[in-house]
Design a protein that fits this description.
This protein is an alpha/beta fold. It has four domains: 41 residues; 158 residues, P-loop containing nucleotide triphosphate hydrolases (Rossmann fold, 3-Layer(aba) Sandwich); 63 residues, Helicase, Ruva Protein, domain 3 (Orthogonal Bundle), CATH 1.10.8.60; 92 residues, Zinc Finger, Delta Prime, domain 3 (Up-down Bundle), CATH 1.20.272. Helices cover 54% and strands 8% of the residues. The strands form two sheets. It has a five-stranded parallel beta sheet. A two-stranded antiparallel sheet has the order 1-2. Helix 14 packs antiparallel against helix 15. Bound molecules: adenosine-5'-triphosphate and magnesium ion. The site of magnesium ion (MG) has 4 residues, from helix 4. It comes from Didymodactylos carnosus.
Length: 370
């Protein structure tokens, strides 16, 4: 693999080019006269990288973003960009694919600089790295004579973790270097980006992916990787991803490894994702209908002994109870209010057993009131 790129873009190039293969031969599979090549070493590549979209058109579900971005790429009016949205929805993939389309692999290292949360991004880095790179001029032609954009691109990934001072230092640079440089800022929480920066960028919101899209993608990957997966196992997998494609693909790779060459079942999915089987939730809710504290305590102890996470349990309880038509809105309001409080306590490190008991006692009170 070519390694002539600079430090940052080398890691990028490695990321994107290895993504085309699941196993990459460490050496060429060739014999050079008089010189024997070393045996081929197969290196596994995570499926999220292998299936990272390589072209902007491969990005699923973000149609509005892609349509506008394609116009920007083909025209000369490429603005500063701000991508925001939940994890695993294609923000980084989109800008990497767009950068490759605009500059081609030859120009990529000269024209694109990526900084992410793993890089130090205080004010000194903005002053030293970003401003220096932004000041370099850029021609509108590739070495082979093909036209290309006349600017360079600075990608500031995960920029919601940049300090406010560093963001402030960017403001002037974005304006001053606008002839030669475009910025693409990427974050999960737009509220953490200072107003003067957001107003200098065209904003693109990435939506959580629809379950059908994730399901389709997982089925394609299963077909490519020869993984046999039961239909309800895929559906369950998709259900717990909250529109995060990265999470879905990572879970799929994990379940496929549990028992290689065997069909992936619903039980495998529960095992890997930590989803609690519906029968367990059902059992907990049923026990709340009988006004026996002892019975409830024993059931909760048994469930927690299985190793299920309390946070997962309250989330699933919430979804389960929400769907129950037999519970009145008033009862739901009291229970969900309690769920929110229990969630906060769990985050603060409260005891799981006591919190679950507290919640289920509230459920029991509501059920046994009538
Ligand atoms: N819209 C999408 N279409 C196809 N694949 C996607 C999409 N979004 C995410 N993926 C898959 O998920 C992986 C992670 O995507 P990406 O790095 O672009 O997410 P992100 O939005 O930048 O997330 P984060 O906010 O956590 O950085 C990709 O490698 C790809 O396999
Ligand atoms: Mg990202």
């Amino acid at each position: 693999m070519s390694n002539k790129q600079g430090k940052k873009s080398t890691s990028l190039a490695t990321k994107t080019s290895t993504s085309t293969l699941s196993t990459v031969p460490a050496t060429k599979d060739l014999f050079v006269i008089g010189k024997r090549e070393k045996p081929k070493i197969e290196r596994p590549v995570p499926w999220v990288e292998k299936y990272r979209p390589k072209k902007v058109s491969d990005i699923a579900y973000q149609d509005e973003v892609i349509a506008v971005l394609n116009k920007c790429i083909s025209g000369s009016d490429f603005p500063n960009l701000l991508f925001y949205g939940p994890p695993g929805t294609g923000k980084t993939s989109t800008i990497l694919a767009a950068a490759h389309e605009m500059f081609g692999s030859d120009l990529y290292r000269d024209r694109v600089m990526e900084l992410n949360a793993s890089d130090e991004r205080g004010i000194s880095v903005v002053r030293e790295k970003v401003i220096k790179f932004a000041q370099l001029s850029a021609a509108a032609k590739r070495p082979d004579g093909q036209p290309c954009p006349h600017f360079k691109l600075i990608i500031l990934d995960e920029c919601d973790s940049m300090t406010k001072a560093a963001q402030a230092a960017l403001r002037r640079t974005m304006e001053r270097e606008s002839k030669t440089t475009r910025f693409c800022l990427i974050c999960n929480y737009i509220s953490r980006i200072i107003e003067p920066i957001t107003s200098r960028c065209a904003k693109f919101r990435f939506k959580p992916l629809h379950t059908d899209i994730i399901e389709q993608r997982l089925q394609t990957i299963c077909a490519e990787e020869n993984v046999n997966c039961e239909k309800d196992a895929i559906v369950e997998l998709v259900k717990c991803t909250d529109g995060d494609m990265r999470k879905a693909v990572t879970f799929l790779q994990s379940v496929a490894r549990v028992r290689p060459n065997e069909t992936v079942t619903l039980a495998d999915v529960h095992e890997i994702t930590g989803i609690i089987p519906e029968t367990v939730i059902d059992q907990l809710v049923q026990v709340c209908h009988t006004p026996s504290y002892e019975k409830l305590a024993t059931t909760v102890k048994n469930v927690l002994c299985e190793g299920y996470a309390a946070h997962q349990l309250i989330m699933q309880l919430h979804d389960y109870l929400l769907e129950q038509m037999s519970i009145s809105n008033e009862e739901k309001a009291v229970i969900f209010d309690k769920i929110a409080m229990v969630d906060g306590c769990l985050l603060d490190g409260a005891d799981e057993y006591l919190q679950i008991m507290d919640l289920l006692c509230t459920v029991m009170q509501q059920f046994c009131r009538s």
